[in-house]
Write a structure and sequence with these properties.
Two copies of one chain form a homodimer.
Chain A lengths: L12 H8 L3 H8 L7 H14 L5 H8 L4 E6 L3 H5 L2 H16 L3 E6 L3 H13 L5 E5 L7 H7 L4 E4 L9 E5 L1 H15 L4 E6 L5 H17 L2 E6 L4 H13 L5 E4 L2 H13 L9 E3 L6 H4 L6 E3 L2 H16 L10 E4 L2 E3 L19
Parallel strand pairs in A: 1-2, 1-3, 3-4, 4-5, 5-11, 6-7, 6-8, 8-9
Antiparallel strand pairs in A: 10-12
Helix pairs in contact in A: 1-2, 1-3, 6-14, 9-10, 11-12
The first copy, chain A, binds a DNA duplex through helix 2 and helix 4.
DNA sequence: AGGCAGTGCTGGAACGTTAGAGCAACCCCA
DNA sequence: TGGGGTTGCTCTAACGTTCCAGCACTGCCT
């Protein structure tokens, strides 16, 4: 009568069993729809469970079945940097969608600091609180992941990790994508002197995008300059004066949209015209590039689809699937989104009607 | 010798105990730095644990201690809608920061669909896989939360929930903030005929922002129009023609930045000048409003700080703190960010130098 | 009549951890 | 010399679940 006064001690299998008058095992089996339990008993058990508001204690289940029904989304970098990036939102959307479909929880695992970071995801995975992990934005030099993979834990990487050939990964071909962006400025817009604004060069994607730029420029015999940035809008703005100093450049290939925006905003403020004086193309298409004026042409990175596929593969791994060596790495296609900053789309009033 | 061949069966307390030659309990106590274990034994145990790569099995610990060392971040709406919003990123940043500080994991809990949603967070909380929850963006009509709160489970709400007076919540004063925005257009810019673009009116914040707009307008005797939107950029664009038809309006107060942007982009495309013909002010300041041209004046909502405080309060609750009735609700201050769309900041080139 | 295959349940052990009770051994002071 | 306190461990019983082995009972075939 005076039940659930404060923090209603959770109802367990035993409570249900007593109510129905069967054993605990019978209740457990009934709730799993085991064939060896009679239909009538099952019905009575399910009714009682509903009435008492029974919910399986996930810790006990995890302990017994050594299955947590949860996956981790691991972000080794500091949360400031990555969450600030719209990339993460797309990834999270993809991961949760697939996790939901598999009735699994998603645990977000960030490392407070770089040094403690190594041990952070190590602990999560080995503590048995998750069945596997998606690892995103890992620093190039991280060896902890290698160990996890070598120990046979289900791990899928998001991005390209040439130094981890055995790990399952889902990424894009950054080199080829950067070539396409560069060639677009050269071939579609006739630009002959290009500057590339790089990301931090300890990130594989930054390296690859630079290499793609250089390869395409070399192939077509156009002039090249390199300015180093760090993927932030500020670093793009900071690169502005350096680009101004390069009198003859007529095209900018930025390693992401934020830097493109930072540089563009600076140069527009100094009276340079985009795209007339300087054609600009960015990279990522995570939202920013669509809403600026001029809108920024870019290489669309299908982050959500990458996350979806990575998570699908993770559940395959958890399910016990073995991956052939030549199937370890999946590459998603990228797409050139031509907007105003390269000159493909006219400036001015007519942009109201475009659809997604 | 042939250890850890495949999925190295995780090392347990027992493995460490056998290695050192003590009992399992001794190892458990040593790792918790219990005073009744000798210093030398502790040292030997810790060394062995390190060597064997021992990590506490969190399921077993959770089962035994009925403490999961994890909190849930619950997003009842469909993931599409909410993750698409930069709001969530700020919230996640705040929540993970505090969770890290408390050595707790963060579980993201989204409901695949609206109907199934109710049971979703109910299950998460009652299954014992988390110690408490932050609930964000809950629909106004949700009664499941009421039950959780009534059952004494640690729950903190993000936003204002006037129909849940007992629940602990952290929010802003949307009415007052909307009044401030509206008064800014009236007093600082002399606007006399205002249109308000609302959010979905089953959300408390949308209701409050509309009410604040109406109150301020009435107080200053300016004309008002209401156009209903749903917080999306598309609904802002769709409201564009309706606003055009309202010939005499000279100010737009949008319930968020995305709608302000949608409407503004449409109207700019039709030859209307912002801010000259129409002063625009938005709401949120989650990123978009800073990067558009013209940049959008807005009410800054300190989402990350709200999340930080909510999570702090959650851990207080988990720690057993009782909350006095008059301390249940915390209100964070909002701030007017005056940019170009209302006329405060000049248009054109000079915006390169602004800092965060 | 005996065996034998189902059917429908019960009993009990195990998962890895924690914590309270218990117990030797020691030291100190009366 | 013996009682009382401290130190440093061990033993054991949980926590709630799952699952295998067992067991009684029915029905059927030979």
């Amino acid at each position: 009568m005076t039940e659930r006064r404060k923090v209603a001690a959770n109802t367990t299998l035993r409570d249900v069993a007593e109510r129905v008058g069967v054993s605990v095992s019978a209740v457990s089996m009934a709730l799993q729809d085991h064939p060896r339990i009679g239909d009538d008993t099952k019905r009575r058990i399910r009714e009682a469970a509903d009435e008492l508001g029974y919910v399986t204690n996930s810790a006990a289940r995890a302990l017994r079945a050594s299955k947590a029904d949860a996956i981790a989304l691991i972000v080794p970098n500091t949360s400031q940097h990555v969450f600030g990036h719209a990339y993460f939102m797309h990834v999270l959307t993809g991961v949760t969608a697939v996790a939901n479909r598999n009735d699994a929880q998603v645990v977000i695992s960030t490392s407070p600091d770089e040094s403690h970071g190594k041990v952070a995801y190590d602990r999560v995975l080995r503590s048995g609180s998750v069945d596997g992990a998606i690892v995103t934005s890992a620093a190039v030099t991280d060896d902890g992941i290698q160990r996890l993979v070598a120990d046979g834990l289900p791990v899928v990487l998001l991005g390209r990790f040439p130094y981890l050939p055995d790990a399952v990964s889902v990424g894009i071909d950054d080199v080829r994508a950067s070539e396409l962006a560069t060639e677009h400025l050269i071939q579609a817009h006739g630009r002959r002197a290009l500057v590339h604004l790089t990301g931090p060069l300890d990130h594989q994607s930054a390296i690859d995008r630079r290499d793609g730029f250089l390869a395409a420029a070399a192939r077509h015999g156009v002039g090249t300059y390199i300015v180093e940035g760090d993927f932030s809008e500020e670093s793009g703005a900071a690169a502005g004066p350096q680009i101004e100093a390069l009198g003859d450049v007529d095209g900018l290939v930025a390693a992401n949209d934020e830097m493109a925006f930072g540089a563009m905003r600076h140069l527009l403020g100094r009276g340079r015209r985009v795209p007339e004086d300087l054609a600009v193309i960015g990279f990522d298409d995570f939202g920013l590039s669509r809403v600026t004026t001029p809108s920024i042409s870019t290489m669309h990175v299908p982050a959500e689809r990458m996350a979806t596929q990575a998570t699908d593969r993770l559940f395959d791994l958890i399910g016990g699937a073995r991956v052939a060596a030549d199937e370890a790495h999946t590459v998603q296609p990228v797409e050139l989104i031509a907007r105003q900053s390269c000159g493909c789309e006219p400036m001015g009033r007519a942009q109201g009607g475009d659809k997604q």
